[in-house]
Amino acid sequence: MKTLMTKALEIAEACDIYVREVESTSVGMVKGELKQIQSEKKTEVALRLVKDGLIGSAVSTDIQDETLVERAMISLENQGTEADAFPNEAYEQVNAFSSDVEEMSLEEMVEELKTLNQRLRDKDDSVQTRVFISKEVKRVRLMNSQGFEGSYDKTNISLGMSTITDQGFHGASKSYDSGMMPEVLDRHIDNLFEHHYLGDKKIQLDNETMPVVFAGRVMGSLMLRVLAGVNGGNIVKGVSPMVDKLGHQIFSDKLTIRDVGNLSWGCNTMAFDDEGTPSQNTLVYDQGKLNSYLMSIGQAKKLDLKPTGNALKRSLFSKEIEDAPAVFDTNMLIEGDNIPDETLIKGIKRGLLITGVMGAHTGNMVAGDYSMNISSGFLIEEGKLVGKVQGAMIAGNIYDLFKNVEAIGSEYEVMHSIFYPMGYAPMVKFSEALIIGK
Amino acid sequence: MIDQFKKALPQEGFCDLRYQTYSLTTIKGSKEKIKTAEVIRKTGGNVRVLTGGGFGTFCFTDPEDIDYAFDQAKRASDLIPGQKILDKVEVHQDQVRVQPKMDPRDISIEEKKTLIQHYIDLFLSVEGIANLETNYYEQMMDTLIINNQGTEIQQEELICGLSFRITSKRGDVSQITRLSFGGTESFEDMLDQDQAILKKAKQTVDLLDAQPVSGGQYDVVLDPEVSGLFIHEAFGHLSESDNLIGNDALAKTMTIGNEFAVNTFNVIDDPTMGGYPGSYVYDHEGTKAKKTYLIKDGLLAGRLHSVESASLLDEVPTGHARAKNFGFTPIVRMGNIYIDKGEHSLDDMIASIDEGLYLFGSAGGQTSGDTFTFAVQGAYKIEKGKLTHMVRDVALTGHLFTTLKNIEMIGDHVGFSKAGGCGKGGQILIQSGKGSAPIKIKNMGIGGK
């Protein structure tokens, strides 16, 4: 890295070099049979140069790539992005690396799957299932010409189980994402099969406004809109409804939202972001009141605020380095009164529990709009799940919906932003939402 | 390097290597300014070994890791019980070089920026346009595919395009539309687009005056872009036969000859026709791409295959196994899927509806099994056989097989989307084309806001 920096500084005033090495393995099992096993060992390098107040960047898979500096200069000369000073702040190490995960062999991963599969068969061997496990070890190094030299290692385990319907389609599912091996509890398996069996009791709804509970795992579909609203880029451009709303009561006071980059063993835990800003615990909405945006260094400077450690070299649909750092979630967390999940469901006379949606990436996300197919949702009557709804949609705007938060559950599940985990949430009950049925 | 790779190929079972140099040039604008210009270059390989009951695969970026990659892939394959045999491997030796009519690589970044800035200025000259996200992409992949059956293919794949995400805003109401040019290996389509830009800008502003659609069931006419998205999401993904492997129930549903739609309904996937986002010669397993009828005269006629799925189902490999880049394993993907033309004019289709919607412009979708959903940029109300006013915030959902049966009329011309793009298995593939004749569907589920 130092050789590259020396070469870069021969023609540039400042630079930073980011190196990410990833080793991963994924194993899947369908109906008790192992399928494909995929592994990778790859390196990505990103160089950013600053000269005459402008910044340019280049990406490669080889730190000795002779064209890196030249390409970064072409980038610098052709773009209008003003350079911001690279940071040199002290950062703290975080609990993100598990040597148990790093040392887990392929054979041990297969054994984990076999054990989980057997537990599912023990529950009901007439139901066909899929299980998967994926392990990742990531090593990140970042240095810049301001003197910053940082590194951290990160492990991650993704584990999942799902059922297959009699028609061969996706049934119920449950997944985990963590820095260390997650624990699959018996009641999670019970819950998986309960949701699967309810698929046999199909229910069609009319258009109806009713209480709705989003399971933690599908809160990501709504949190994508929350994230777009507090994304410093959208604030600077003036397109977010949250412009000039810091300190305003936006959501129900029952809802608190954090973005915690330094969460121990979180799915996206990091010591510093991809610009070198130390990771933080950012209170985004404090009991419904907008407390902070999520910002890169450049955005924070324009807004006269402090960066939050959310500038990442990824995109919504890719974790490869394809772009300049942009604001993304680290570990988003939903907090509230955390009442027991059973109590939350029991209190509903007629409502809907949503455990799966499609179309989370469509529509005007920055404005908070959503219009999604309910791919997995269960009608609640007198506090009990009575059947699975068919062909229904839920549509509205989060800035209306989140005013109606009535209760927050207690068991946290991993949320996903399309392909990737984005943090953790318990189930959230909204007092009313529009369901479009027949 | 090829000799080194060939030497590393194990001779046992089946194995292959895809080694790629991947270059992506992007010029991105935000609002009135061009913000970034980058040239990303990555090189790496992906090996697959089949000596056991399933593939072991390994991706690497350091060429020195080639032997390690094959060792690890073999170790993984051997862990999978059984012995899977591929008997549908096509062997080819070939070189494919792109020959664009107007090569984007011959046009300087400066010239591209000048053109893009002109379009940005044009958009923002229209009152009511509040934000604009601009993305020019130019992706070049130089791919080597070799296997231990004798295949050796060196193939260039080039695609460039320009896309805009346009936001209009008035008070608390904002609307977003999209416009794309290109989606081919030639830069030509990016030129002379002033009129298209002004028309889209006006439409985006006009949507601010539209009322949100009321959710419910409507008879609808889908424009070619929306019909293309429908057939891609709802049926195309189900035609990807890796879904059928080990899934007897789905295989039964997808039995060739099953009746899915009216007898004038035809669906084709054709990567071999040039000039669309999903056009290519060889897929990433080295199989030659083939035009494939998926539905012919309303009956299920075929499906899209990898070598593995074709071998398991004893069908002809169609050349549809592709990967985003070397970082990913090839999976079954659509090339250029489209609903072929029928006999009705658009006017006849609209005239046949007493109360309904004409939907225009795709805005992304998703499918799961036999259920699909997608959003559109807007719609016109159809009242007594005529288009009246615009409505906004329109999303659709439905059950595939019911919806196919509800297709009543098929338009007499086919249009293709200029923007590719499809996500599956964590891979966004921009080289995926879709098109269609406009279609009329009765009783479509529409979600409002």
Q: Could you describe the 3D structure shown?
A:
The complex is a heterodimer of chains A (438) and B (449). Chain A has 438 residues and is α+β, with helices and mostly antiparallel strands. Chain A has two domains: 2-195, PmbA/TldD fold (2-Layer Sandwich); 201-438, no CATH class. Helices cover 20% and strands 39% of the residues of chain A. Chain A is built from ten helices and 22 strands. The model of chain A has no long low-confidence stretch (mean pLDDT 94). Chain B has two domains: 2-209, PmbA/TldD superfamily (PmbA/TldD fold, 2-Layer Sandwich); 212-447, no CATH class. In chain B, strands 1, 2, 3, 4, 5, 6 and 7 form a seven-stranded mixed β-sheet that branches. In chain B, helix 3 packs parallel to helix 4. Chains A and B meet through strand 2, strand 3, helix 2, helix 4 and strand 16 of A and strand 1, strand 2, strand 3, helix 2 and helix 3 of B. Strand 2 of chain A pairs parallel with strand 3 of chain B, so a sheet runs across the interface.
